[in-house]
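Appendix B. Chain record.
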Amino acid sequence: MLSLFTKFSNPIMRKILTITFITALFISCSSDNPFSITTDGVGPFSKESTLVEAETIFKNDSVVNRGNVVEVYDKKGSKLLIINGKEEDKAGIIRIVDSRYTTSKGISNASTFGDIAKAYTIKRIDNLVGTIIVRVNESEAYFTFDKKHLPSEFRFDTSKKIEATQIPDDAPIKYFMLGW
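Structure tokens predicted for this chain:
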């Protein structure tokens, strides 16, 4: 035991041990999160994936292919994602249904407008008939909110410009989408 301790007290041996430990730690922590949302993908489904590949990509889940729309369910039957296709069988819009999917800034479909405003820079707010769409600078994600959470003067007039300060911080996300 003493000879083992002596080996570790050698500065070169300590450096080697430290490098080995850091490398092992990095390798063990580098597993991909199956619920991460990045600019290039949602979990294992990447920007380059096709709708046909969804069944293989989500092989541990249930995939319902309805032609131009693919729905992904976990084994318990809970809906995870809805993937809408575009030309060449690529994903155009992905709707995040399960709140386990989160961005690197911790945003999920269980987040509020206040959470989004703290995490991202608001690029644009589109005023539609029953909803508003909030787009952010740092991501291709966008968030739909029901207008029932807005002050009454904005609920029925689509011509009014809505500012971020007019949206309550506690307004829940109605739809969390990612568009490519």
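Further analysis of this model is presented in Appendix C.
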